[in-house]
Amino acid sequence: MMTLSDETQLRNARREVSDGTVLRLMVTPDVRSLELAQFCERVAAILPQVSIAREEGSEQEHPLIRLPNGVRYQGPPRGNEVPPFIDALTGRIPPLSGRFRERLDAAALHPAELELFVAPPCTFCPGMVRELMPLSAANHRIQLTIIDASLFTEMAESRGIRAVPALVLDGQFRWTGSCVIEELIDLLITRDPASMGPAATEMLLREGAAPRLARMMADRNRIFPALIELLSHPQWPVRLGAMVAVEELYALAPALGRKVIDAAWNRFDAVSDQAKGDFLFLCTEVGESADVPRIKAMLQREVSIDVRQAAEEALEKLK
Fold first, then answer.
1. pTM assigned to the model
2. Residue 233: which domain range?
């Protein structure tokens, strides 16, 4: 619930908000979508320059708000979080220091997912938000998501977060309490691309860089685990990009491509019917005789008409 103080801060920023400012709200079956929707509606009521673009997410995704500069919020900003939210909304994000910007611009930067866990009572969290926003604004490949740890407790627990502010890069590297920006930039530039999480890998696929992703894996003789997860992504364009990457990888390094197919088979029963059908189509392109018994065994179970049809087509092609 937005407090009177929160509303006053928004009203005081009215003159700094540009006409046509859009908050992109992704709602999902998650009940917490309602809190984000109510927050966006209140912001739009206070600031007439702001409109809401609503999109539907899947049950596998978390509800979130995307700001015009690419910063994302999982959880409505409250209390101490409101001032940096206003900075992002009004474009008051300061530019990244010149030497840091030069390093980022000169590097062939792989997409990066930064998750910053905060909590409304925290007095240190706003400072960390303000430190990180210039990074996201400086390079579109750095995705910053600010997560309310008190609202998305299961996410905080899965990342091992016990105190805020806490920053997680690609789901692996973590800082608690403070983060030296120079150290973070060093890691952004030098880290192994195999460490990219699903969100960062998804950015590559959305850029049409599936062949590049395949080459990176072939050059390193390693499978990037996020690719296997993205084969069952709820959005078709992402699944398609992942399938293209697998086909390219199979052409470059058949043994690696085969490992991806085997790993995807292990997840087959847990994914959606749409993802099952797409994977079976992928098997018609890069499948082998080893897939035939798996498909036949799957047909002995109860499956939807669409999945059954895709399986029969795959069997026919593999013959």
1. 0.83
2. 193-318
